[in-house]
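User: Hello! My lab partner asked me to get a predicted holo structure for this protein. The small molecule is NAP, SMILES included with the sequence. Please write out the structure tokens.
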Amino acid sequence: MDRSLLSMYDLTGKVAIVTGASRGLGVNFARGLAKAGCDLVIASRNFESLKKVAKDLRKYGHKVISFKVDVTVAEDVKKMVEETISTFKKIDILVNNAGIATVVSAEDMSKEEWQSVMDTNVTGVFLCAQQVGRHMLKQGYGKIINVASQYGIVASSYVAQISYVASKSAVLGLTRELAQLPQLDREIEVFLNSPTAETLYLGEFFFSFFEKRQNSD
Ligand SMILES: NC(=O)c1ccc[n+]([C@@H]2O[C@H](COP(=O)([O-])OP(=O)(O)OC[C@H]3O[C@@H](n4cnc5c(N)ncnc54)[C@H](OP(=O)(O)O)[C@@H]3O)[C@@H](O)[C@H]2O)c1
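Assistant: Hello! Below are the structure tokens for the protein in complex with NAP.
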């Protein structure tokens, strides 16, 4: 990154948790924060992948801890937050990024498929925000960034993603509600990040989906 740009976003001495940082966007969020000067806790279910990511991120000169967590399990999330506090004494930033998607038509989706997306994308985001938020309230500051999607705002058109779209819309509502809680003063802020698929490998997935569909029409 451009040096002058980095100095505008200097986060030296800050501590960030990034969930879903074993691959994909989470790694990019974590890398950006490491480059900007943050110490990091990176979290997901796959500890081996996390360790590889952590090794790579340490080249930026900051502390990086890997933590095995299933964001749908309240006890896991609590332990992740406790471990972060015990190591770093504070949490400045949470990037609530862990998420999953299924591509199943609405008429064929099982309750289990529906529920697994809701559990990860909505309950997981809530549990992490709640546990981290409690510490931020004690500290009196902090930033929570919830990762939603463009599909939290618009329909996914031809892609069969009803549970994903519903879950990301729920993240919008959850974020809006958290951001206006009266117990947050100006030093605690809750943000929404709504990426689009076009720039990443998911973009390739969607393009090939549309291509196949077009060819079969
Ligand atoms: N990529 C895009 O184009 C795009 C567009 C819009 C929105 N988004 C959103 O951005 C976020 C990241 O997307 P991505 O494309 O990078 O996805 P990805 O490559 O599939 O990565 C998802 C991450 O979430 C973790 N994860 C999934 N379930 C988890 C659980 N129960 N507990 C803990 N970690 C869990 C995965 O790690 P483990 O498997 O190791 O647990 C992985 O690190 C998601 O919320 C997604 O909805 C992505």
